[in-house]
Amino acid sequence: MDTFRGKAWRFGDHVDTDQIIPADRLISQNNNCLGDFLFERVRPDMTKNVGRGDIIVAGKNFGCGSSREHAPRSIRQAGVDCVIAESFARIFYRNSINIGLVLVECKVEAEEGDVLSVDVDRGTVRNESSGKEWTFPEYPQYVKDLISSGGLMARIKEAKRCTR
Q1: Packing angle between helix 141-149 and helix 152-163, nearest 10 degrees?
Q2: What percentage of the chain's residues is helix, strand, coil (to nearest 5)?
Q3: Burial of 48 (0-12, 13-18, 19+ CB in 10 A)
Q4: pTM of the entire structure?
Q5: Which fold has domain 3-163?
Q6: Which residue ranges make up each domain of the chain?
Q7: DSSP H or E run through 92
Q8: Per-residue pLDDT of the chain (164 residues; tens, 9 = 90+)
């Protein structure tokens, strides 16, 4: 599966999809640059400073709000491949898995800028800055397959290639 290592971007509880990407940015011309607008109203400098592989850490109910999949797409397009939160809104969770964004449901202690490593196969999150480590439940195999394929559409295309 995957291992992730990156700087923590800390958020609180109930981060909704309009905070992740404002609704007025959801126009067809922006589909390939949604990451440019990630958290622009609540963290305006984030997209200038986020690094490929950085990790979002949040509290409860991350991704609540609308069912649009633009929110997880903006996170991926900005370079974040993993979000750790105590809990996720159900539709956000499914949309994220469908596009290959890794979500880890786990309460971790991390300050802004701490370096985290996530081992999906072992089910561990380690705060390299503090030395603390936490575990999280293993993904079911079909979810692992979706993520390792890059999401639902990539998995379908992969399956079509294999059947010809």
Answers
A1: 90
A2: 35, 20, 45
A3: exposed
A4: 0.91
A5: Aconitase; domain 4 (3.20.19)
A6: 3-163
A7: helix 90-99
A8: 578 999 999 999 999 999 999 999 988 777 889 999 999 999 999 999 999 999 999 999 999 998 888 999 999 999 998 999 999 999 999 999 888 899 999 999 999 999 999 998 899 999 999 999 999 998 888 888 887 777 777 777 777 776 55
